[in-house]
């Protein structure tokens, strides 16, 4: 009996369809799947993955990530990379204290672990999100060659881009998702420099090709002059210094508060410091625990603005909050020869007043937790710290304004958001530098709302650059205003007006 010539054709078609199906259904590595977490008794609302990506085999250079799939439509929802700042601070800061899938409740007894409860305002409600410990040497990321712990802006961007390329090889099903980069504080440097590196890779045809759409920066370090000169106007606007002192400082310093050029200017700035020294720098409305003066804290006072001595804390349901020292450079911190010291280095290991990162520290240094999230044990990489002094970091990228202008002029969307009660990187600086870019205002300063209430103010510029404040929020916006943060985050990712 003669063979039907169409059978061979159909076999080829079926084979091709089978191959396509295999490719399309290729999924995240099963050995990275997180199946349970100590302290949490419920069911995860979405899949979680975590582990290491090696970006340099010869050095044993490993970056740690924790990946949370969207609780909505993981195959379609945006994918966001989250970075905390420092430099030297772990992105578990964001996971534990800000917008991760859980709220953490302090342990009830000594020796027990914190309890985890589902977070109603997790950013995984609307997006897939990767929490990355970067640069190497921070958090749970490590290298077998300690020379890798001497790094800076450029190398960090290169390394994180290398991580992304390898991560997408492990999770190819997310390549078509809209991709965004987000972060806060010193990540105001990480985010635009990494975004620029990603765009360079796209232009060069680097594989895999990332579907990069834009970025978000919260209370971010951007430009020495703008950031440094923001404190005095902020303090005056918040009623922290008098009209008379403000006029004196303006006249004597001539608007240059960051690098005082005269002794008279310096003496006026010391009066400002004296007025604000006991405030919580991360949220001027929040209380701060005052330690008694000691020789060590006196020494700190000599080298740092007095306003950075007393850090405070906030309350959030089900969680013990921390106020950590090192999410961003101080307004007038010493930066010598481009070296940005991490805050444990600045303090020579001394305890910082109001410092409390106990919940995250207890949880991430527990052996069962390390095992559950596929992290190396403490005897291999040491203890997890919210902010480490393992690294020596150089800030060599300069002002970020040129990066923002380059990216937005090419069509990438940018949201610059600021908690309006943060005195560490005040909104006055971010408002000023976004205006300085020179773009035409398309959406003039107006309130934006959440749940029918004014949640802050927004000014929109051409080329998809938007500046937004969050009313009553401090340095880490989602920590203070989780609902409002999820609102603007959701709208921005969806390309909707805020």
Automatic annotation (TrEMBL):
* Any one Gene Ontology molecular-function term assigned to this protein's record: acyltransferase activity, transferring groups other than amino-acyl groups
Q: Could you mention a single GO BP entry for this protein?
A: proteolysis
Its keywords, alphabetically, are: Carboxypeptidase, Disulfide bond, Glycoprotein, Hydrolase, Protease, Secreted, Signal
Name the GO cellular-component terms: extracellular region
**Assigned EC number:** 3.4.16.-
**Compartments where located:** Secreted
May I ask which residue range the UniProt record assigns to the signal sequence?
Answer: 1-27
- Principal subcellular localization: secreted
Q: Which Pfam families does the protein's record reference?
A: Peptidase_S10
Per its UniProt record, what InterPro entries does this chain match? AB_hydrolase_fold, Peptidase_S10, Ser_caboxypep_his_AS, Ser_caboxypep_ser_AS
Kindly give the PANTHER family that the UniProt entry links to this protein.
SERINE CARBOXYPEPTIDASE-LIKE 20 (PTHR11802:SF254), SERINE PROTEASE FAMILY S10 SERINE CARBOXYPEPTIDASE (PTHR11802)
Q: What protein family is recorded?
A: Belongs to the peptidase S10 family.
Q: What does this protein do?
A: Probable carboxypeptidase.
This protein's name: Carboxypeptidase
Give the organism the record lists: Durio zibethinus
